[in-house]
Amino acid sequence: MKDCVFCKIANGMLPSTKVYEDDDVIAILDINPATRGHTLVMPKTHYDNFLSTPREILTKVMIVAQRLGQIAMKQLHARGVNILTNCYPVAGQSVLHFHVHVIPRYDTTDGLQISMKDMSEEKINLPTIAKEITKGM
Ligand code: 5GP
Ligand code: ZN
């Protein structure tokens, strides 16, 4: 897609530090890493996010993400890994080309902080929320 920075990287029009490439998938080091070895895995073809990516492409991306997570543990001596993908700006997506973050973790106080607020009122509503979700399944 024109003007998409990750399409340009996938096409070789922009430079990147590549760690993996095949016909459909590319993995590059994040330019602004949260931790050492923070990698982005993405399809070469443009899809906006995880939710709009066809299953067969999703599978290929996730297989590479799993492999990179395993490698982070073995080669970078990470003690854990966060695999995450943001969908839409409200969820923190800043580049609107589907990508999965593979973030090696070395310590609970390293560069990635994930926190969840206590939303007590949502706990009370669990059965109602479950009904809304299951309606769509
Ligand atoms: P998002 O916020 O969309 O989930 O993540 C986008 C990620 O892409 C960010 O972590 C950001 O540092 C990274 N990023 C943005 N532009 C570039 C770039 O040109 N090259 C590389 N390697 N990473 C980028
Ligand atoms: Zn793109």
Summarize this entry quickly:
This protein is an alpha+beta fold. It has helices at residues 5-11, 55-75, 120-124, 126-135, and strands at 18-21, 25-29, 39-43, 80-84, 100-105.
Question: Mind explaining what this structure looks like?
Answer:
There is one protein chain. This protein has a single domain, classed as 2-Layer Sandwich (HIT family, subunit A). It is built from 4 helices and 5 strands, in the order H-E-E-E-H-E-E-H-H. A 5-stranded antiparallel sheet has the order 1-2-3-5-4, with helices on one face. Strand 1 and strand 2 form a beta hairpin. The radius of gyration is 17 Å and the shape is globular. The model has no long low-confidence stretch (mean pLDDT 96). The structure holds guanosine-5'-monophosphate and zinc ion. Guanosine-5'-monophosphate binds next to strand 2. The site of zinc ion (ZN) has 6 residues, from helix 1.
Shape: globular
Largest sheet: 5 strands, antiparallel
Rg over alpha carbons: 17 Å
User: What CATH first level would be assigned?
Assistant: Alpha Beta
CATH topology: HIT family, subunit A
Number of domains: 1
Bound molecules: guanosine-5'-monophosphate, zinc ion
Number of DSSP-assigned strands: 5
**Oligomer category:** single chain
